[in-house]
Amino acid sequence: MKRSRSLPSVPSTVTVVKDAAGRYFATHQAGDVVTCNGVSHRCLQGRTAQTGREPPAVPALRQPVRPRCPDTR
Q: Residue 60: helix, strand or coil by DSSP?
């Protein structure tokens, strides 16, 4: 597969599904790191992304991923 740009990280196990109404949803597995509004989160359980269930609305589904501090030695 040829990508239009390089990826910022290793691809996760995200699957995109389309429902009968023609809407698309991303399905994540536990452990996937996803980014919403510029903030990265680790999924704590498998789920399908839905409007209204973004990270601030349902914090129990994910935990923020903190950036690593640079080595200061």
A: helix
Task: Give the pairing type, strands 15-18 and 24-28.
Answer: antiparallel
Q: Which amino acid would we find at residue 15?
A: T
Distances (CA, A) of 29 to 35, 44, 47: 14, 8, 7
3-state secondary structure of 61: helix
CATH of 15-64, one of 1.20.81, 2.10.10, 1.10.287, 3.30.70: 2.10.10
How far does Cα 13 stand from its chain's mean position?
9
Q: What is the pLDDT tens value at each position of the chain, 73 positions in all?
A: 565 666 565 656 678 888 899 888 888 888 888 887 788 888 888 888 777 777 677 778 888 887 665 655 5
Cβ pair 65, 41 in contact under 8 A: yes
39, two tokens: 């903030």
